[in-house]
Structures are given as C-alpha cells and as structure tokens.
Amino acid sequence: MSLSTPRWWYDRERRHAPVTRMLLRPAGWLWAAVTARRIARTVPVDAGIPVISIGNLTVGGSGKTPVVREVLRLLRAAGVDAQALSRGYGGKLEGPVRVDPAVHSAADVGDEPLMLALDSPAWIARDRVAGARAAAAAGAEAVVLDDGHQNPALKKTLSLIIVDGETRDDEWPFGDGAVFPSGPMREPLKAGLARADAVVILLPADIADADPELVATLTPLPVFIARLQPAAAPPPGPLMGFAGIAKPWKVERALKAAGADLVEFAAFPDHAAFRESDLRALTDRAAVFDARLITTEKDWSRLPPAWRARVISWPVKATFDDEAGFGALLLSNIPSPLAGEGGPRSGSDEGSFRP
Q1: Helix axes 64-77, 323-331, angle to 10 degrees
Q2: Of 54, 95, 278, 284, whose CB is crowded by the most CB atoms within 10 A?
Q3: Distance in angstroms (rounded) separating the CA atoms of residues 63 and 55
Q4: Which residues are 317's β-sheet partners?
Q5: Burial 23-35 (b: 16+ CB within 10 A, else e)
Q6: Which domains does the chain have, with CATH numbers?
Q7: Residue 324 half-sphere exposure toward CB, CA atoms < 13 A
C-alpha cells in the first residue's frame, strides 16, 4: 500500500483539518495501544552479534535510509563487517535472502534494500530474527537494522532514532503528537524515546542549525546532527522532477536549493509503483519545457528497466557534524576480538573512531 502523507499531520497548532483529526483520534489511540502491547509482550531474541537499530517515531519521511547507509559505511571503514537487514517493504520475497542488485528488482526486495546493497551486504527478511541469523552465518560481525524501532523481535545493542530536523513553515516533525492515522506518530513520543539510546536530527542542506526547541525536546538523550546533502549537483538545463516518497515536497525543495533549473514537480504516494502511463505523462509534460526527467535514487530503483536510461537519478547522502563522536558511539557497541566481550573495537584508543 502506498501512503500519501498529509501535510496537516505536521501542523502542531491543529489549524488544519481539525474535524478530520478529531474523527481519527480514537483510531490513533487504538494503534498506540496495540503497538505498546506487542512491544511489552515480546521477548527479544539475541542473534549472537550486535544489532544496531535505525528507526523513527513517525510514519515515513525522516531520512532513515541515508543514515543507515552512512552507519554501514562508517562501520565497514573501521573494519567491522556490518551488513544491513530490512523487512523488504514493497518486495514479494519473504527471505531471508541476500540482496543482489544484479539479480533482484525493487519488486522482489523493496527499493530501500536495493539501494543499501549497492554499497554493503544487505539482507531482507520478514522474520528479522531469521534474517539476522542468516547474516551472522554469512560472516556479519554486526547487523544494521533498517526501520526496527517498533519491531521488538531482535535484541538491540544500540537503538538510534532519526528525526526530521525541518521545522520551518510551521512544520513540526511530530505534528501535535497524535498517533497514526490522526497524526504522523507510530507511537507516543515519550514511549518511543524511552527505548532509544541516541537521536540523530537530520537537517536538509539549506538549514544551518537544528531548532533549539527540537533539541531540547529530545534531550537528555545524546543528540547528533546529520545533514542530507546531494552526492552530486543536479545536471544543468531544464528539469522536470518527480518523487514517490513520504514527503515529496522535500525533494522539490532540495532540488531548488541545490541549484536545479526545476520547471515543474510531480508528487506521487510513498513507494509508488510507477506505471507506463505515469511515465509517459511525465515525459509529455517535460517536453513542453524541453526538460529532462529527474527523480530520487530510491524512486529510480522502482522504474521499469526500459525507463532508467531516460530518467536522471539524483543521489543524496547523510554526513555527520561530529563524525568522530558518532563513530565512537557505534564502535563502543561492537565487541572487540582483542578485548573480549564488551570491549571497544578500536583497540587502545577506547571509543575513538578512525574512518
């Protein structure tokens, strides 16, 4: 199911869609109760290797995948065989299966695992415990669990929460705090933060500093600042953008901030399966402006193969302001083969991070 994210979810003043909010509020209470009961009743399983969970407290749109990608890069650069594990949302395979970009499509394994597998070993499994054990059997020294905060099946060594740091235009990442479907929250803020070890605030490239009120809301947990930046500049010339992610308006804003000559932008639901008719309509509209089509790397992975040469993929990446401090946090949760269980992998320089 694809989700069109309502903008009013992120209005904490409740000025928009007040009647809809009120009608959906009981459904949100039920959702929160079911989630809390499932988490409380589940006994997590130890997979035998460290599990670093990257999750969020809202329904989509926080930027988990770029952060997962960067966590994998940092760990692997430090000599840790870290491998990604995802449910494989949107894919038909149940797993456990290691993702092979040369063999699998987004229809098989989902778009996000396909992206992760371009840089690091990645697995998909509906059964997260079975997936972690499969990765461990294949030599993984740590698993980076994508979107695992509300999944209690695996015992987690480190739980990180990703928060969208954009608070301008009266947007607030948690809206008025209401739980889905009356708001963006997967669970109440206090409950979700209670199970977290640290928070990453992800800022768009054109916002210099995190909102002090947002940082205060998330403390006393350690808060790290990361920035979502283009991995490459948009190409010159007129561009027609489109995206099917939870917050497509952020892609439009990011392209403009990066200097793209964006003549028009089309928004699709999250994880949209692009049809031939959609792509033909986009092509026809772009032709009016003599423009080329451009989309996110994630959306590009869901395009029919015949269309990929006709659409520009625009990649982004997450970078940390305090990369050394964040890397030290990661490594402090990876047992060292030299120091024994619980020792930092960085040897004599405890907690230090060396890319």
Answers
A1: 70
A2: 54
A3: 10
A4: 229
A5: ebeeebeebbeeb
A6: 51-229 (3.40.50.300), 232-316 (3.40.50.2300)
A7: 4
In the block, tokens 């994508």 appear at 146
Using DSSP, state whether 130 is helix, strand or coil.
helix
Contact 300, 125 (CB under 8 A): no
Q: Which helix (H) or strand (E) holds 111?
A: helix 111-116
Q: Say which residues have a Cβ less than 8 Å from residue 252's Cβ, sequence separation at least 6.
A: 241, 243, 262, 265, 267
What is the token pair recorded at 262?
A: 């964006």
Task: Look at residues 142, 151, 121, 187 and name the one whose alpha carbon lies nearest to residue 45.
Answer: 151
Whether 142 shows a pLDDT value over 70: the answer reads yes
Residue 343 scores a pLDDT above 70? no
Residue 289, classed as helix, strand or coil, is: coil
How many CA atoms lie within 13 Å of 163's alpha carbon, on the beta-carbon side?
29
Pairing mode, strands 122-124 and 82-86: parallel
| Count of CB atoms situated within 10 Å of the CB of 355 | 9
Tell me the per-residue pLDDT of 76-97, one tens digit each, with 9 for 90 and over: 999 999 999 999 888 999 989 9
**CA–CA distance, 203 with 330 (Å, rounded to integer):** 20
Q: Identify whether the C-beta of residue 239 lies closer than 8 Å to the C-beta of residue 292.
A: yes
Chain segment 272-322, per-residue pLDDT in tens: 889 999 999 999 999 999 999 999 999 998 999 899 999 999 999 999 999
CB under 8 Å to 266, separation ≥6 — which residues? Answer: 240, 241, 242, 282, 285
SS3 320: strand
Residues 6+ apart with CB under 8 A from 275: none
The Cβ of residue 199 has, within 10 Å, a number of other Cβ atoms equal to: 22
